[in-house]
Amino acid sequence: MKALRRGALGVCLSGALVAAACASAPPAGHPAAAAPTPPQSTIHATPPGLGQYPYSDADVAFMSGMIPHHAQAVIMAGWAPSHGARHDVAVLCERIVVAQRDEITLMQNWLRDRGEPVPDATSTRMKMSMGGMEHAMLMPGMLTDEEMAALDRARGPEFDRLFLLGMIKHHQGAIDMVNTLFKSYGAAQDEMIFKFANDVYADQSTEIDRMRQMLAETPNAGGGSLE
Amino acid sequence: MRGNVQMSRLITGSVVAILLASGGLVAGCGGASKTAPPPSTAPSGSATTSPAQPAASTPATTVPAAGTATPAAPGGRGPAPAPPPAPPSTMPAPVKPTISETAPNPDPRVGLKAGWWDAGQAAWNMRMISTTPPAGKVLGATHSDLAFMDHYAIQGNYNGFEIYDISNPVKPALVQTYLCPASQNDVSVFGHLLFMSSEATNSRSDCGFGGVPDPVSTQRVRGIRIFDISDLHNPKLVKSVETCRGSHTHTVVTQPGDNDNVYIYVSGTAGVRPSEEMPGCENGGIDDPNTARFRLEVIKVPLNAPQTAAIVSSPRIFNGLPVPPRSEERDKQDQAERAAAQAQRAREMAARGQTPPQAAAGGGRGRGPAGPPTGPNQCHDITVYPAIGLAGGACAGLGLLLDIHDAAHPVRVDAAADPNMSFWHSATFSNDGSKILFTDEWGGGSAPRCRATDKMEWGADSIFTIENNKLVFHSYYKMPAAQTPQENCVAHNGSLIPIPGREVMVQAWYQGGLSVFDWTDVAHPKEIAYFDRGPIDANRLVGAGSWSAYWYNGVIVSSEIMRGLDIYELVPSGLITQNELDAAKTVKFQYWNTQDQQKFVWPASFALSRAYLDQLERSKGLSADAIASARKSLDSAEKASGSARKTALSELASTIDQSSTGSSDQTKVKLLSKSLTDLATASKSPNP
Lengths: 227, 688
Known about the structure:
Order of helices and strands of chain A: HEEEHHEEHHH
Oligomer: heterodimer
Number of helices of chain A: 6
Number of strands of chain B: 31
Largest sheet of chain B: 9 strands, mixed
Radius of gyration of chain A: 17 Å
Number of helices of chain B: 8
Mean pLDDT of chain A: 82
Structural class of chain A: mainly alpha
Helix content of chain A: 40-55%
Distance between the termini of chain B: 77 Å
Strand order of the largest sheet of chain B: 2-27-26-25-24-28-29-30-3
Shape of chain B: globular
Mean pLDDT of chain B: 86
Structural class of chain B: alpha+beta
């Protein structure tokens, strides 16, 4: 939890919202604000031995942003044993912890191999500089500190419910990041980025469906917004 | 954090917009004003062909010349992995296998030395007979799936495909390398045609190496490429059938009775392409009749006019899903937990003076947390078995059973969920079609999922019987030797080995090596042979290992992602006898695509009858005396000829028939007796 509180000045950006100003996380499904036209990102040569295609800033931003995104998923899922998750939720959580930890390593290696800055494996904030100020941001779909605190307080069925709602939103954010990546100039030409982004899309879509099914079997789970 | 300062180099306000703009607004992103793509790299090497290249266009200014260094960042480049070293002119001799009925203990697969070409090896009851490193421009490219025709193996790779002559499996000969970069470049063959899957966004219509940086581009091809390989030295691209989600894998489907066409089931796990790039591609939900998700694409290929191949149907095989995991015990427990949860929540709310809310309607946005579950929206791979009219669909969150009697219009007949199966990846039927094995490629093949800490039922195979077209779960199988964190390892592609009367299969586990196992007893699958190498690198995970390991006409051929084409043979042991292997080798195919399963039919042979006798000895289905006597009779029948042989075999068949009544293995005794009768019938010819 220490990592979460560090980003008190965090610019919270979530879901489809694009905003330069600080904002709290909008509810899931908030209508997208008009997005500025993304510029052409810059292309970099891939060092020898790492593949024949160049990589782009969009690739770097995707990998850099997905590390804190995954880091939060690992924290959330890691609570299952201590927070009394029911069996099927606990199984899913255990798999998420193993899978996303491995993927954090993969992303860190990808960045390190290319001489790019490597985000910490446990920080849940994307560090960014905007207008000369450094901000720590939440990537799409991530839970705010308040949402994380509510999840951490919950036990048993309430944990299941909040976890499923939160992780569905979290996974959807990851898929939004993949979709954004594929819409960026020069992105995902690199073999490993393409494969990883595609795996995130396929694996997390599959898990979203599995979680929706679990949620459908969760008492009073309707409504679909987080407390 | 050291990285913060450097991060600001790239995170400008506008890039933030790229990062966060989600949900579709990318106007101008990769629009028409971009520079032309860089010219494709010309193919090189005499044994290399590639389609005609377009006239060189203006070189791109956005792609720096190769070797331009990225500015060094204080964050620090880690030790970059070494490019693949050139393979030695003579490959190290493969390890001598341990041959035994009991698996070696401790398992020699644990702790093998790392290395590209000289990694440590462990072999049990099988032997590597050749390893052929990739050459030229495909060295270092990811090697993918395999297809076979005549005495050729065709191996896909992310830069194209290679054709090997394997008539002498000890020394495969490279016939042709064809360059056409894309992933996964999974290959299948039929007649004079080769089919190849392209899914990557860098896949170019001209098969060039320049990639396609524009997010929307007419130069991108994602779908199925069809080649005419009548001349193996000069494959010709005759058609690219584009699909909305590209093609991750595909399956060639034959329709019994139709010799003029084949069908291709396209499995695409990627997102939907923009409709600006491919008109008509819609990314809608399950209720959208035009969505490119929640459907299977079926391509019809007229064999005489492959250039007219096109999508003929898009069956909605996912409608009405999902299904809950089928485990009665688990269901009961979950129901009890849910009831308890409901009661507890009601109590808690009552204590706070609140009324428990009614469950609200499930939303309808289709993407919020409250959206209803819809089941999978694609398959990863489909294995068809036209001889029985069924297909096994490995479809992300579920395993499906499909009726394919009408190949163009497959219909779902059952679906299975399993709490331990993360990502249903591929399927293999038993030869009689009564059983099916699904793999779970948990982590997509890039992750080390065979560590000592990884559960044996995760990233494993799950074994089902098919009972009245219903999938009934029995057990899991996972390659049992713990691998290092430097070895990507999970269940992957394999095929049946035609050992009569048993379900024996060889399977690739990436850097977990090859595992041969017997799943005749669906409750107790058992490993009977293996081959494994150490990791590529002792200190970092370099993706490698066996992508596919398939039996073809007497040998096991493996596509090693980085190390090329490996060929193995099984060695007789107490677990597989020489007679069983000899019988397996009597089954020959003209071509083989593993995802288009063909039925094994064993011609009558002395090896076949002896194989059944060996199995009855193993199962104690006949007395030792009866087996010894039968073997003696078989030996003398083989020495006899003409009518003497025929009479001897017929007599033996009826003796065996009579002993079936008391046997604990009557099915096998009947197989033996039938094989003898068939052999008698065939014994008019001097040498069956």
